[in-house]
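FAQ

Q: What does a record look like?
A: Structure on top, sequence underneath. For example:
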């Protein structure tokens, strides 16, 4: 056990086999040297007193192409955070109290974040900060599906997969123009 550790570990990651990053439920990241096992630094995403009494309901994690870490937290509000490993600083990309719980995170390229949530799916331009929530998803044949999205994933071929709230699995052939043309994308309802 690590001395002084009081909270649940949510994710671990290594960086070029030199550093071990440990993320906990309280928004703390600790960086250890993998050769000496010594703590190099720790940074808190938000003040501990902001954490509500209940533990985080979920946390999703992704690594950006710039070696930054992106994380989702739900704690009475939903927070989308970025940790820059070069500057060793946290920044908040999106913080909302509307309780549209964030479920999953996908970074299909260096400028786009896609977040599944209880209201649908968020498309966030990481450079401009523009955000679009798509609550109605157009399906092949002209129907529209209004559902929450539990899971998002890009398939490495330009496609986007969406796991829904009891409505099956959706697939979009491409995501490059999202969010500006999401209404024109054809989604296939599988199984």
């Amino acid at each position: 056990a690590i001395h002084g550790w009081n909270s649940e570990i949510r994710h671990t990651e290594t960086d070029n086999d030199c550093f071990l990053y440990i993320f906990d439920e309280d928004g703390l990241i600790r960086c250890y040297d993998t050769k000496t096992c010594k703590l190099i630094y720790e940074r808190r995403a938000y003040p501990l007193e902001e954490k509500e009494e209940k533990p985080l309901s979920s946390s999703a994690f992704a690594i950006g192409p710039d070696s930054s870490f992106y994380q989702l937290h739900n704690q009475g509000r939903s927070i989308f955070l970025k940790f820059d490993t070069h500057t060793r600083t946290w920044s908040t990309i999106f913080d909302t109290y509307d309780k549209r719980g964030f479920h999953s995170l996908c970074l299909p390229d260096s400028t786009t974040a896609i977040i599944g949530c209880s209201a649908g799916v968020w498309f966030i331009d990481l450079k401009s900060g523009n955000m679009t929530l798509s609550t109605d998803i157009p399906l092949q044949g002209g129907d529209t599906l209004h559902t929450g999205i539990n899971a998002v994933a890009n398939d490495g071929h330009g496609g986007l997969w969406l796991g829904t709230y009891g409505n099956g699995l959706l697939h979009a052939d491409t995501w490059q123009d999202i969010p500006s043309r999401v209404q024109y994308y054809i989604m296939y309802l599988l199984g």
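Q: Is there anything notable about this one?
A: The two ends are 45 Å apart (CA to CA).
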